[in-house]
Design brief:
alpha+beta, seven-stranded mixed beta sheet, 31 strands, globular, binds dioxothiomolybdenum(VI) ion
């Protein structure tokens, strides 16, 4: 029986956040804290010839100018081997510059202002080389990587070549382009590091506490137990903070050299070169269908940019393996190195760009087949996972289409473009499918039930603005059988049992089982304790004779004669019971199924025909994330994902200076993300159907699914409004006019 789970509970950290009482990693201070400022490379490719530090060192308050000359020995993995936490500082080791923004020095001073002044006084001489700044300037020796994060990215099934040349078929051949997008969380990256002898303490704005801990232990050759990483709240990340980056290492290195706490916060501009980005990519889609619109073959070729040092793949094609029931399918991925920092994952890293291309191509196929785009998708519905032949754990995509279409009024849609107007504006309706895997990760949690009627559950997980603190407390409250007010979830600290990284929408789906197990283990201890209590109905009971529900322990069959957990603990003279438990990434019930979320987006745009200005006036999404843990936080996740998708469609683009490779719109006024004034009505509907395979509660992640497909729904609606197919993001007025 669930009470807290499924309820539209307010965020437990909501009041603290809106009143400014909440503390993020950047809000902490230490006595004798010094401030560090990075000096970034001004050139995109070359070598550091000389760094003149004398002037900087003379500035009052400057404590340290860290350069190649005095960088202490760090045990770094070779570049290319791991995710690029080493990347921005290899220039401090070998003097080679591979992108603009890479570190050439770090200035540490008593105050931030002194450090900034010091950084401005560092003079660097470079030996410059001609950089490759665009994908088309990249070394033509493109790399075809085998996999990306365990997913095979070169893939083929069926008789591909035969299908592609079959006569009498409808064929769509189109290329789609998406530019670099940069994660723009409100909270910049920040580290505060200090050493107590060999013990390193770090406040770090991170979505992967345990990874940061492991990296720091490795780099400084100390035991993992001697690295304490804390991050009570994350002020947004969208992927960027799910990895380890050089500033954390640099702050810890400077703190050790100076033997005092060092705080290093990136500037907004540095956020554009330091923590990855969604890479630009070109995706070529070839769809072959019979006259009835049924797919015979689909091919999805992705080229994306990476850095010279790390082979990052934008795995956009993976959606084409599984989304539609095409007998033949092929995906290829190649990467082209340019002189830019290494890209990284950004919300729905494969699916956001991949579904843009695939779902736009499906719209083009619907046009060619003279079919309603929804009917086309129903005809190509994949009843089983076409990539593996497995059953879906729970797929309700048809219901998503149906509910979304009904709420939107899709039936009224004229097939032809440019057929609807409103007060002189062109009106268009478009749709797209949404999909994202239902991942879970191995993780652990500890539960403590106390004699004063409070419980606390802990795991080194992350509250990234998604509501994890609230939703995980809801799961814990129901597991214990207590009202939510009596249960607190604690996260953000590596001294807690190991939590999952906040990536791949795994947090809730993974931790709810670990919480459940930890609570049940604590309840078992309570029952064992009860059996030792003389003068109670439980004295001497065997474990199987006792049961628990709603915060009470009773003899099986006699729930009315139970004692509360508090009474049992007090009776035994104990303050609390506590237990820890873990779950694996997979178990019996997950095996043999493809666990995947689906949804459907419906979009209305209105376009001014004279100015080609487009507004999304109405957006309806029907989403299936399994059981909905909290309709309020889930809706908030969906709104955020949809708004990010609108930004990807219409405004977001990191623009690089073609001469220097530096981002020119590296600030909140020139990098356009949608604001409230840009948004129309957004209506989100969740199916709320239990996934029987993923975990005991049946909930899949809510974070990334909502963003997938949004961009295509907008672009398809723009075609329907104007008759113009734009395949190049973002769809700015100059492309639409
Ligand atoms: Mo996502 S960027 O894989 O958390």
């Amino acid at each position: 029986m669930n009470k807290a789970v499924g309820a539209a509970v307010d965020r437990v950290d909501g009041r603290a956040k809106v009143t400014g009482a909440a503390r993020f990693a950047g809000d902490f201070r230490q006595d004798r804290m010094a401030c560090a400022v990075i000096v970034p490379s001004a050139v995109a490719r070359g070598e550091i010839d000389a760094v003149q530090t004398a002037a900087a060192r003379k500035i009052p308050g400057v404590l340290l100018v860290l350069t190649r000359e005095n960088l202490p020995a760090l045990h770094l993995k070779p570049p290319g081997e791991e995710h690029p936490y080493t990347e921005a500082l290899t220039s401090l080791i070998d003097g080679k510059i591979s992108y603009a923004g890479q570190a050439v020095a770090l200035v540490v001073a008593e105050t931030l202002e002194q450090a900034q002044e010091g950084a401005a006084a560092v003079h660097v001489r470079y030996r410059e080389d001609t950089p490759a700044l665009q994908m088309n300037e990249a070394d033509p020796q493109a790399v075809f990587p085998k996999e990306s994060h365990g997913e095979k990215v070169q893939y083929v099934r069926g008789k591909m070549d035969e299908a592609l040349t079959m006569p009498g078929m409808i064929k769509v051949d189109a290329a789609y382009f998406n530019p670099v997008e940069t994660h723009n969380p409100m909270e910049p990256a920040v580290t505060l590091a200090w050493w107590d002898h060999d013990h390193l303490n770090v406040y770090d704005a991170t979505r992967w506490l345990v990874g940061t801990q492991a990296t720091l232990a490795d780099v400084f050759r100390v035991a993992k137990e001697n690295v304490h990483v804390m991050c009570p709240l994350v002020g947004g990340a969208f992927g960027s903070k799910a990895f380890r980056w050089s500033h954390t290492v640099l702050a810890a290195a400077a703190a050790r050299m100076l033997d005092r706490p060092v705080r290093l916060e990136l500037t907004r501009a540095q956020m554009f070169t330091w923590m990855g980005h969604r890479p630009e990519s070109r995706q070529k889609l070839t769809l072959v269908a019979g006259p009835d619109g049924r797919l015979i073959a689909m091919r999805h070729d992705t080229s994306s940019a990476t850095s010279p040092t790390h082979p990052f793949v934008a795995p956009s094609g993976v959606v084409s393996k599984m989304l539609y029931a095409a007998p033949a399918a092929q995906t290829t991925h190649k990467i082209l190195p340019v002189n830019r920092a290494t890209p990284t994952y950004m919300r729905a890293p494969a699916e956001a760009p991949g579904m843009f291309a695939l779902e736009c191509a499906m719209d083009e196929l619907a046009e060619a087949a003279r079919l309603d785009p929804l009917e086309l998708r129903l005809r190509n519905h994949a009843d089983i996972d076409p990539a593996t032949g497995r059953l879906w754990s729970s797929k309700n995509l048809k219901a998503c289409y149906e509910i979304g279409a009904e709420k939107f009024g899709w039936k009224q849609r004229p097939l032809a473009p440019r057929a609807m107007t409103d007060h002189g504006l062109l009106v268009g309706w478009g749709l797209a499918t949404a999909t994202y895997p239902g991942h879970r990760r191995g993780c652990a949690a500890a539960a403590r039930i106390t004699a004063n009627g409070k419980a606390r559950v802990q795991s080194s997980a992350h509250e990234i603005g998604n509501g994890a603190l609230t939703v995980l407390a809801q799961a814990a409250a129901d597991a214990i059988g207590w009202p939510l007010e009596r249960v607190t979830f604690e996260l953000g600290d590596t001294t807690f049992p190991e939590g999952p990284p906040a990536g791949g929408s795994v947090t809730t789906a993974s931790l709810c089982d670990a919480i459940d197990r930890a609570v049940r283990a604590a309840q078992t201890k309570l029952m064992e304790t009860a059996a030792t209590l003389p003068g109670t109905p439980f004295a001497g009971a065997k474990p199987e004779e006792l049961a628990t529900a709603e915060g009470k322990i009773f003899r099986r069959g006699h729930p009315a004669q139970g004692l509360s957990y508090e009474e049992i603990l007090r009776g035994a003279g104990m303050n609390f019971v506590e237990a820890e438990a873990e779950v694996e990434e997979t178990d019996l019930k997950t095996k043999g199924f493809t666990i995947q979320s689906f949804g459907a987006h419906f979009c209305e745009v209105k376009v001014d025909p004279a100015l080609a200005q487009a507004r999304v006036t109405r957006f309806v999404s029907a989403l299936d994330i399994g059981r909905v843990m909290n309709p309020k936080t889930a809706r908030s996740q969906a709104l955020g994902g949809i708004v990010m998708g609108l930004g990807m469609a219409l405004t977001e683009e990191t623009i690089y200076d073609p001469r220097t490779g530096r981002p020119v719109n590296d600030n909140f006024s020139d990098y356009k993300i949608p604001v409230n004034a840009d948004l129309g009505a957004i209506d989100v509907h969740f199916l709320d159907r239990i996934d029987p395979c993923i975990n005991t509660l049946g909930c899949r992640g809510a974070g990334e699914l909502p963003m997938t497909g949004v961009t295509a729904a907008v672009v398809n609606a723009l075609w329907h409004a104007t008759g113009r197919r734009v395949r190049d993001l973002p769809v700015t007025p100059d492309k639409l006019i």
